[in-house]
Structure formats: C-alpha cells, structure tokens
Write a structure and sequence with these properties.
With 1094 residues, the chain is mainly beta. It has 18 helices and 77 strands.
Length: 1094
C-alpha cells in the first residue's frame, strides 16, 4: 500500500477531527439520556456459583440491527439470571424498552450470545439467542425469536431444529456451501469438568453429540446437523468462546476461526468448496493464545486480506501482572506440544495474514498483546481515518487468578475451615475472591500495523465488561458502541466525531431472496490514488455479540471514490464516482459481472524452491538452558547450524561444511554438476568432536600452502564450562579436502570458551591470515561479560594469543555473536567490526600495531541483542555498508535510549553463584524486573522473607528488591535498540542509520545475505530468523517466513510480502549464496535451496 497516502490521510484526519482537550471521542450516556436501563446483575447460592459453573462471570452479549426496517438500529441485550431486553430506537439516541410487548425476552435459564439474522427470508431481522448455565440440563435450549413484522416475535427454535441443548456461547450465520441460503455454526462449551481430562489422550476426534460445536446446514428452512461430514470437531474438549467467520484466503468462500478456552487449541477451518472444511491451524499459525476468549477478523492494514485478533488474559498494568499472573514452565509447555495442543501462550494474538496460507503473529509488535482479562475484541474505524482501530472489553467480577487468594485457600487450615458438615461453604470461599474493575482498552491504528493506546477515546472505563457491539445508532456516519457489563449498568457510548470534516460512506446491501442482508459480501472502496479499503459483511463478531450489518467506511478528506461489491454468489457490482457522506443502498439483483477470484498475491519467478540439492537434516540435541539458569528467557543452545561455503578440493567449485550440533556429526558436501554429494572421508576425524556443539566454522589458508584449512569452533551452552571439548580446533587440509587436526588449543590453552564468532584476515599485514575469535557466553553465567581474542599467525598455522597487545579492551567486552573484517578507513589494512548482546555495533580501526575503537560511528550508541553482521555495498558508492540483525520489535522486551533494558549481574544472595536480573525502565524512571515473584524466589530464597506475598511485591522496583551495596557491586549491561538495522557508510568511518520496512522487525534475525536477485544493478537483501527456544512467559519468536527486501535505490528498500518465492518456515540460522542458488540452514530442520535468475 502507498505509505505516503497513509501518512497524509492520517495527518489530515487528526487535524480536522481534533477535539477540545477536555472532550473524548466517545461520550458515555446514562440511562436517563438513552432510555437503556439494562444491568446484567448476578447473585449466587450454595447450589449454583462460580465453583459449580466455570463460566459464571462470562457475562452477556449485545446485538444490533434494524428490527422494524425504519432505518434506525435497535439493540438487544442478553442477561444471565434476569430477562433479556430489546430496545427500540426512536431516533436522536432515545430508546424504548419493548421487551415485554415484543415477547422477545426468552424463557430459558442463562442467556449468552445473541445474533440478529433474517432466518426466514421475509426481510425482517430475527433474533437467535444462545443459552447455557443450567446445570440440571433441562432448561437451556437456544431460542429463536421470529420477527412477525409488527414489533412482536414468536419463539420458534424447535421448528427450525435450532433448539440446541449444549452450553452454547454464540452462533454465526453464513452461507458456507454457496447454495444461497444461510447456514449456522453453533459454538458450544464442553460439559465436562476441566480437571477430569487426560491430556495425554487425544480427545479432539471424540465427538460430543449433545454438547459439542455444531455446523447446521440450511435445507429448505430446516437446519440439519452436518458437523461430522463437514470435517468440524464437535469435540468433548471444545471450550469455544469465540466463533469468527470470514474469507481468510480470498477464494470467495467463508472460513471459520474458533477460539477455545483452557487447554484446547484454537481451530482454523478452511472451506474446501465442496461442503467440507479442512482444519489447518497448526500449519498456518505458529503461535496461538492459551486461554483464547473472543476474537474478530478484519483487514487491519488495508491490503485486502483478513487478519485475526484473539483476546487472552495477560495484564497490561505491572501491578496486576505481578499479582494475578503465572506462566507455564518449559516442561509443561513441551508436554502440551507433545500431546497436540500446539504452541499456546498467555497473551492476545494478532494474526497478520501473509496472503499465502500463513499468518505472522505480531501482537507484541503492534502493541496489543496485553489488555488483562479480556473478552470481546472489535476491529473497526472509530475515528473515520481509514484505519480500523481496536476495542477490547475487560474485567472479571470475581478474579480467581489472584495469586494471594489462591495461596490462601491452598492452606490446609483454611480448607478445613471452609468445610462444614462435610459440605463446602461456598459463600465463605467466594466472598473473599478479589473483585477489582479493570479498564476497557481502546487502541488507535497508527499506520496499519502499529497501534497505540487511544487515551482520548473515552472508552477506557474501569468495569466488568463482556459482550460489545458497534453500530451507527444515530445514522451520522460514525460508529457508536454498546458494552454489556456484569453487576453494572450497560455502557452506551455515543461517537461525537465531527463527520462534517471527516467523511464516510455507509453501505446498505440488499441481497437475494435467500440472503436478503447479503451476509458474506465483500465491499471495496477504491480511493482516487488507487489504494483501497476493505470490509466483509459478517455481523457475528467479538464476544457473544452481533454488530450493525451495514459496512461503514471512514474516508478522511476523500469526497469521491469508486466502489466494488462482491456478492456471496461472486457476482460483482462496480460503481464509479460515488460521493461521500451518504447511506448508499446497493441491490444484488443489479449485479451482472462474475468475479474471477484471485486469492493470493501473484507469484514471482525471482526465487524457485529446488529439492534435493543438499540432502541434510539438522538435529538439535535435547538440552534445556532454563534448568541451569532460571532467570534467562532465551536459550543459547540452539543457535546453529552455520554454513561454510568454499572450494576445499581445488576443483573450482564451492563445497559445503555443516557443523554438527552436540551428538550430530559435522559433515562436508562436495559440489557436483547435480548438486552437493556427501563426502564421508572426514567422518573419523569429526567423530572426535561429536560431543561438542560446533557452532561456527570458517575455511581459510592457515598454513600458506595454497589450500583451505578449517577452523571448527565449539560453543553452545550444553557442556560444563570446564570441559576440554570447549576448545576450538584447527584442521589442516592435505589439498584434497581431507582434514587433520592440529594439537593447538584455541583460542588459547587457558581459555575454554563458548565461541560465538570466528573470522580471518591478515591483521598484521605479514602475508598470512590471522584470526579474531569472539566468546558468546560464559556457560552457566549468562550476563557475565565475555572476551574477544586476537590470534596472530606465525605463517605456518601456529596461532598466538596477542589480544593484550592488539586490543586489551577486548577482555570482558560483551556477549559476542558476530564479527567481520573490512578496510573501513581505506588505509589498506583490515579493520574489525564486532556485535553481540548488550553491545553496540563497534568498529575497531587497525593502525598496524593495534586496534583502536572508533567512537564516532554514529550519533547514537546502538546497544542491542545483535545476532548477525553482513557487509555489502548497498548504495553502489564503492564502500561497505552494514546490515545488522537484531532481536526485533515483535517481543515483550522493549528498549529505547530513554528507557533501556538493563541486566543487573551479581551474586545477590551470596551463595557463590551469580545471577542476572533483567529489568525494564518504567515511565517513572525506575527499573522493574521482568521476573515474577516466584521466579526470583526460586533463584534467591532470601527474597521470600522480604516479599511474603504477591501484594508486597507488586510495586517493587530493583532498588526495593536489592540493597544499595548489592546494586553498586553489580555489573550492569544495557540495551537501547532492538531494531534490525542498515547503516549506510558515508565515508571516513561515519554511518547513517536508515529505517527498514516494519515487517523486518517481526522476528529476531540470525541470517543475512545479499545479491542482485532481480538483475537491476543493485544489491537486494535476504534475511531469516526466528527463535523457538524461549520461555513460555515471553513466547517464541516465529513471525518470520524469510524476508526479501528489494533495493529500490536511494537507500530505500521494499518488503515483498510473498518474498517473490522466498518462503521459509522454521528457525533460519544461515543463508549462503553459490552462483544462482540460495542455501538456507534451519535449526532442527532440513536444508532448503532456492534458485534465482542471475
């Protein structure tokens, strides 16, 4: 999309719609203003309460629709213990309660979700209400209120076979089989108690005929259960809280996303266009929410593809995080993966649609990953700037996750006091559960991918909110909002946007005889500059709710545009030169073009995946760094494999070395005309290092005999820090590619190190190749500064550690991950650039006798968690620019110059073993630990006395946790930048940082290479990354599928969404280029090869 248009439109809307500083975008109306006097009040007793029914405080829903066709949107609200209510819109934001007169309140036990839909195709909206909660099981059938056309309704669910008896949460009506009428997906929540499941037994295929999810096909007005034959799980482990319908792959057929609570994973059903679905979530989404709640599906960046947002329960406020949150440990996480529950994490998820049957989870990047106990999510344009914003309803009336409460009731004496006459006194147990309101969250969409807190929205009201729905209640062109609350009055929010200066278009679609409201239609607003806005008509959204069915587009200052409607039968209506600020009726009967669906981005022939070039599968050994160091968040034991490409047998072809992980043999592949062939001649030699983690390697001529020798580095974190296997090894080439190890212990006999970098160059200009070796970590002591080593060659392949002469400041310089040699200053000797964790990108000038640190590299010292350095002349000016792979911004960890991440490293508990405590800097200037109370206590038992409960810990910054002496004696390392970066060389050792496309920051970058892939005369860039061995509380990093950046010239780079064929799943660790082949190494996976035209 044209980013210039985005920025201009956003600026214009901001200026034109800026309100008085004392006003908010939304005004909260009280019941005397609106006439909506609804409260979903709950009480409990000994027989029915939150301990008997787990969804007791899940609350009710909201539905909006015009029930009497007067052009005004009416409102239906569901209650759990009281009567549901229907409010008739009388105009001017006045509503009349017609519940009793209309006979629409319902007679069943516990209403949850509600949807308005024209079920009998008479042109009037009917109301379908889901019911649940009746533990006796005889009074919770779903209800269908048929609109009689005179403001009265007749309950007729049984007549349509829609009187489902499950614990129903919600229902969504859509035409899944494209036969013209509306079918329905009924979302249910399992009858079975959570603690009774055997998680080792895969019960997903086990059908629950009564209580499982159901897909009901409409056959002439009767709904028939086709769940099993359609490939839908109607499972006993389905804990559905959200059903979201939309076309995720743009093939013109609606797909289904189901968000499941508790241990079961979510489902993504892809419509197979033959009456069946393929559940494909695990191949399209790498990470999902753990206890998924509500969800919404919409296009957040106006690229034409539906994205999916799912809510969870991660608090956004620090004090709440420290008092109500626990995370699964690594072993439980692995157990869940092993048993088929996928990668689940405690946070909201924003699944960004890549348009190629894959999603990138970018909630952390977008700033919407934490919003507390969240229920409904609604994606819609609040301020009519053309970008869809985000509303999240929050709160739980009784917070069962409060850790002090759980700790209190787990006490045996307390348990005994709660039992009287062999019966649990539920009143005493429930009354002490904390009840604290949590503010609802509103986020403003800044540019399509980034959101910020919408502080002047007026929607961030503390509450116990559940279902919510948006709609234009006064037909003024902006969207109002209603929120259903527990034990509180309903929130009725009026949007006060000035639509005179902020244009809109509202579309009122008139469908065919069997789908009169045109559910499933797609509307595209085509702007004068060629960009587009997209919406799909699916009213069932968020949590238990149904929105105004009329698509409403904010247009900013755009006054005229074209319009395209793709109807459910794929017929198309095209309209030109439409004026803004109107409600436009469009009739399907007037469409006459059938759309040729183009569902994906057009494929390019720049890269072609080629099989069979390198037959190799990397196997990482099983080792859990977290068992050795409790306070680290990322493992260092899975950073391979590295690829080394060069001609080792002097035949003019590049051969390939792949160093092995611990327990896997390093291997050499010789280049042939048909690809690479395994060379087993060195197997006996490599077996000597089988128990090493061979992390890095280089081919170079160590002994000046004209062939390439091998430096094989040992690293990782698996070995004992005293192991002889940590010495690096130099192996001499006999000229044919057969290697023999030297007796040297490298980098020197006194230092067994975990190597993170090794490179060669003639440092001292004596005609032979010397080495720089960088230490990655101190094993078992993450955070302790590591050293770099300068090894000078005597000309015969004997290396001497000359660090003290050349660079004494390399001692304890940081956690080194990469280094490169280059003559940056043009004086005909090799300068050195080094990067690592808690380090800057540091250039050391070679003056012929020593290295001197360049202190004027940039205007700012970018200290990051750098993983990779790559040098390339990107601007064709004859000098080398720097591409530096960093941690990225799609992470719980955030860092800036003003608010750096810090690592405090010391033996805080004085037990002879140091620990590193990672902190973030809050807005008050104080440093707070990322670690939770129990994590710190597990590592340092002395802290339990200082913080006896969670409440005492919730506001403790680092100065309250440790005393002044402990902090003064600590080594403090900082990170102030996590962005992958390009530094353009301006000459004279001065560099300029340029901004890269946002997608580059979706995941950590470990591999970079460059070439002129598109043959336009400048160098393009390939990148790869991801990190799966991360603690569950921060989540894995998996949003990258490989990155192709097209060099546009003038230091501008374009992210190609489909990679022009470069599509890579998994943890990319290296990318090398041989002629016109790109070879990609992945951790615990096979080698991939791509061919490009050169």
């Amino acid at each position: 999309m044209n980013r210039f248009w985005i920025l201009c439109l956003s600026a214009i809307v901001f200026i034109s719609c800026k309100k008085d500083s004392n006003n908010m975008l939304y005004e909260l109306l009280d019941k005397t203003q609106s006439g909506i006097d609804f409260e979903n009040n709950l009480s409990y007793n000994q027989d029915f309460n939150v301990y008997k029914y787990r969804n007791y405080y899940n609350g009710g829903g909201v539905a909006m629709g015009d029930i009497n066709n007067d052009g005004l949107i009416d409102v239906y609200l569901t209650a759990n213990q009281k009567k549901n209510k229907l409010y008739l819109n009388k105009g001017d934001f006045k509503f009349e309660d017609i519940s009793e007169f209309s006979n629409s309140s319902g007679q069943k036990a516990w209403s949850t979700g509600v949807t308005m839909v024209d079920i009998n195709n008479d042109g009037f909206l009917d109301i379908y209400v889901c019911n649940s909660g009746d533990i006796k099981g005889d009074n919770k059938q779903n209800e269908l209120f048929i609109n009689n056309g005179d403001l009265t309704f007749t309950e007729s669910a049984k007549n349509y076979n829609l009187d489902d008896l499950g614990y129903s949460t919600h229902a969504a009506f859509f035409d899944y089989d494209k036969d013209g009428d509306l079918d329905v997906y009924i979302l249910n929540n399992s009858y079975q108690a959570i603690g009774t499941f055997n998680l080792r037994r895969n019960e997903r295929p086990k059908r629950d005929e009564l209580g499982g999810d159901k897909l009901m096909e409409n056959r002439g007005g009767q709904f028939v259960d086709v769940t099993e034959e359609a490939g839908i799980y109607g499972s006993v482990i389905g804990f559905g809280l959200g059903v979201t319908i939309g076309d995720v792959n743009n093939d013109g057929w609606e797909d289904i996303f189901i968000s499941n609570d508790f241990f079961e994973r979510d489902y993504l059903y892809i419509n197979q266009k033959n009456g069946s679905f393929n559940e494909d979530l695990t191949s399209q989404m790498n990470s999902i929410s753990g206890a998924s709640m509500g969800a919404d599906m919409s296009d957040i960046d106006n690229d034409g593809f539906n994205d999916i947002f799912v809510t969870e329960m991660l608090p956004s406020e620090y004090s709440r995080l420290k008092t109500v949150t626990t995370f699964e440990d690594w072993n439980k996480y692995q157990y869940m993966i092993k048993n088929g529950y996928h990668h689940q994490f405690t946070r909201n998820m924003l699944h960004y649609n890549n348009g190629n049957n894959s999603f990138s989870e970018i909630g952390r990047f977008s700033g919407v990953d934490a919003s507390d106990w969240s229920w409904g999510a609604l994606i819609y344009d609040m301020d009519n700037d053309g970008f869809k914003d985000l509303f999240i309803s929050n709160g739980i009336y009784r917070d069962l996750t409060n850790q002090d409460y759980l700790q209190y009731i787990s006490n045996e004496e307390v348990i005994r006091s709660m039992v009287v006459d062999k019966k649990v006194n539920y009143k005493n147990l429930i009354d002490i559960i904390p009840s604290n309101k949590v503010k609802n969250h509103a986020y403003k969409n800044q540019d399509g991918l980034k959101f910020k807190s919408f502080d002047d929205s007026g929607l961030q009201t503390p509450s116990f909110s559940n279902g919510s729905a948006y709609g234009d209640l006064d037909n003024d062109g902006d969207l109002d909002l209603i929120v259903n609350n527990v034990n509180m009055p309903v929130f009725v929010y009026k949007n006060t946007l000035d639509t005179v200066s902020s244009n809109f278009i509202k579309i009122d679609l008139k469908g065919n005889a069997l789908n009169k409201f045109a559910i499933g239609s797609k509307v595209e607003v085509i702007l004068p500059d060629g960009n587009s806005l997209f919406q799909e008509v699916q009213p069932a959204r968020g949590f238990q709710s149904s929105v105004d069915i009329r698509p409403n587009f904010g247009l900013g200052n755009i006054e005229q545009f074209d319009l395209k409607v793709t109807w459910p039968d794929r017929s198309v209506t095209n309209l030109e030169n439409i004026k803004s600020n109107q409600i436009l009726k469009i009739y399907q009967s007037e469409s006459n073009i059938y759309n040729d669906i183009n569902n994906f981005y057009p494929l390019s022939n720049v890269f072609e995946n080629i099989d069979g070039i390198v037959d190799y599968n990397h196997k990482e050994n099983l080792f859990v760094d977290f068992n050795r160091e409790r306070l680290i968040y990322h493992m260092c034991s899975n950073e391979g494999p590295n690829l080394t490409l060069n001609d080792i047998n002097s035949d003019g072809k590049n051969d390939l070395l792949i160093p092995g992980s611990k327990g896997q043999l390093s291997v050499i592949y010789l280049s042939t005309e048909k690809g690479f062939t395994l060379d087993n001649r060195n197997n006996d030699t490599f077996k000597k290092y089988l128990n090493s983690e061979n992390t890095k390697s280089i081919f170079f001529d160590a002994d000046n005999d004209g062939d390439l020798d091998l430096y094989l580095a040992s690293g990782g974190s698996e070995l004992s820090p005293y192991s002889e296997l940590l010495y690096d090894t130099l192996l001499f080439n006999d000229g044919t590619g057969l290697f023999n190890p030297s007796i040297q212990k490298l980098p020197n006999s006194n230092n067994k190190i975990s190597t993170g970098a090794v490179i060669s160059a003639d440092i001292d200009n004596d005609g032979d190749l010397d080495l720089f070796v960088g230490e990655r970590i101190k094993i078992g002591r993450y955070g302790a500064p590591c050293s770099g080593y300068v090894l000078i060659n005597d000309g015969n392949g004997i290396f001497t550690d000359m660090t003290a002469k050349w660079a004494p400041f390399f001692k304890e310089m940081g956690l080194i991950t990469d280094a490169q040699f280059n003559d940056f200053d043009g004086d005909n000797d090799q300068d050195l650039i080094i990067a690592g964790e808690f380090m800057g990108i540091e250039i050391y000038e070679n003056d012929g006798n020593q290295f001197i640190k360049n202190l004027n590299l940039m205007n700012e010292d970018l200290k990051g968690w750098w993983n990779k350095l790559h040098l390339e002349d990107l601007d064709n000016d004859g000098d080398m620019d720097i591409i530096a792979g960093n941690h990225g911004e799609n992470s719980r960890f955030k860092a800036s110059m003003e608010r750096p991440i810090k690592l405090y490293y010391n033996d805080f508990d004085r037990n002879g073993s140091e620990e590193g405590v990672l902190t973030f800097n809050a807005s008050n200037g104080k440093d707070y630990p990322y670690a939770l109370r129990h994590n710190l206590i597990d590592q340092m038992k002395i802290l339990k006395k200082k913080f006896p409960n969670f409440e005492s810990f919730k506001d403790a910054d680092i100065s309250k946790i440790f005393n002044k002496d402990e902090l003064e004696n600590a080594t403090i390392s900082e990170v102030n930048n996590l962005q992958t970066t390009i530094l353009i060389n301006n000459g004279k050792l001065r560099f300029n940082k340029i901004t890269l496309p946002k997608e580059v920051q979706f995941s950590p970058i470990y591999a970079i290479n460059s070439a002129d892939f598109d043959n336009d005369g400048d160098k393009d860039i390939l990148m790869g990354g991801n990190l799966f061995n991360a603690k569950p509380e921060v989540g894995i990093y998996d949003a990258s599928y490989g990155i192709y950046l097209e060099n546009l010239g003038d230091n501008k780079f374009k992210y190609i969404k489909n990679g022009n064929g470069f599509f890579v799943k998994g943890e990319v660790r290296d990318i090398v280029i041989d002629k016109n082949f790109v070879i990609v190494a992945r951790n615990s996976d096979n080698i991939l090869t791509f061919k490009f035209n050169k």
